[in-house]
Design goal:
The protein has 180 residues and is of the alpha/beta class. It has one domain: Rossmann fold (3-Layer(aba) Sandwich). The protein is built from five helices and six strands. The protein has helices at 6-17, 59-72, 86-99, 111-120, 131-140; strands spanning 32-38, 79-82, 103-105, 123-129, 156-163, 166-173. A six-stranded mixed beta sheet has the order 3-2-4-1-5-6, with helices on both faces. A hairpin with a 2-residue loop joins strand 5 (156-163) and strand 6 (166-173). Helix 1 crosses helix 2 and helix 2 (59-72) packs parallel to helix 3. The longest helix has 14 residues, at 59-72.
Length: 180
């Protein structure tokens, strides 16, 4: 099993989350913060492996999902969302279990409605999607998704905060770096 510098990442994440001016609050003081990731590594990611319609995570993917749960364990996650695919639910499951919430399924074909739902529900939301839907959802929420997510890139963690100065996007990398 690989070792990751989780204490350093956790300290950085917590410092960003609780910095003055980064927390979004509406008139009633209800904060909205959205964490977005693509699902972790698929079991069929190998060069000589035929792609399946709905694969599970690989052992590396399960490690990354566990790392995500560890990284977000003290972030105050109140809701976990996933598309209805095995790999996204398996990525979301350790975090949901760790914070004691059920996974809610969202439709990746309805990102406009889903982004409005996220913004209307106070709390800290983890959203697990796919290379294209995660990038698109960051954009739909008014954030900066950067460059499109590559086929074998699983290490992006977007943190969107909403405030009077607009939407702020923080991009962190976690786990093994993306494959070239």
């Amino acid at each position: 099993m690989r070792r990751y510098p989780v204490p350093l990442l956790t300290a950085l994440l917590l410092a960003l989350l609780w910095s003055p001016g980064l927390r979004a609050q509406d008139q009633a003081g209800n904060e909205v913060m959205v964490f977005l990731v693509r699902h972790a590594e698929r079991a069929d990611d190998g060069a000589n492996t035929p792609h399946q319609a709905n694969p599970s995570l690989s052992s590396e993917g399960r490690e990354r999902a566990a790392l995500l749960a560890q990284l977000l364990r003290d972030a105050g996650i109140t809701q976990v969302y996933s598309t209805d695919y095995v790999r996204t639910r398996e990525t979301a499951s350790p975090t949901a279990s760790g914070v004691g919430v059920e996974i809610s399924i969202y439709d990746p074909n309805q990102l406009g409605a889903f982004s409005a739902q996220l913004l209307s529900e106070p709390g800290r939301h983890l959203v697990v999607g796919h290379s294209n839907t995660t990038w698109d959802l960051v954009q739909a929420l008014g954030g900066d998704p950067g460059e499109p997510i590559e086929a074998l890139e699983y290490d992006r963690l977007f943190i969107l905060t909403f405030g009077s100065e607009g939407v702020r996007t923080v991009l962190l990398r976690f786990g093994s770096p993306a494959q070239p």
